[in-house]
Amino acid sequence: MDFKAAVLHQPGExxxxxxxxxxxxxxxxxxxxxxxxxxxxxxxxxxxxxLNWPLPVVLGHEGSGEVVEVGSEVRxxxxxxxxxCSWTPACGGCFFCAQDQPILCKQLTLNNPKGYTFSGARRxxxxxxxxxxxxxxxxxxxxxxxxxxxxxxxPDCIHGQRSxxx
Length: 166
Fold this sequence. Notes:
mainly beta; Quinone Oxidoreductase, Chain A, domain 1; five-stranded antiparallel sheet; five-stranded mixed sheet; 10 strands
């Protein structure tokens, strides 16, 4: 699948809008047509070179949109659902998750700083095949992004009507 995304190649340079390729959707992932993506100070710190991150990268970690495809093992999210993307999914089984500290989830803290997805994959590529890094497991400054099913937050969660967290 091809779509447009905002790509940063080097700190201090302008971001370029480029065609990127998604190489397959993981079994527990959902593909989202991005409807909104907030620009955060963290994005700006990477653009300015104040925060180190693997490059090139598709920035953005404050995204929301509509689910357009789900992986084969996804059970709680469906096509057409409107979701907000969480940059802190948790495995639920590591030491930190068991201690009710999911923000320190081993899987997240292992893969996130490397610019990988939550599962440890790199599925975004430039049109020439060069791999792209992910940003905070979301990369929402794009027409589409993909996240783990457990990172999909439903707007109704605010009112306690629907939650993937239990």
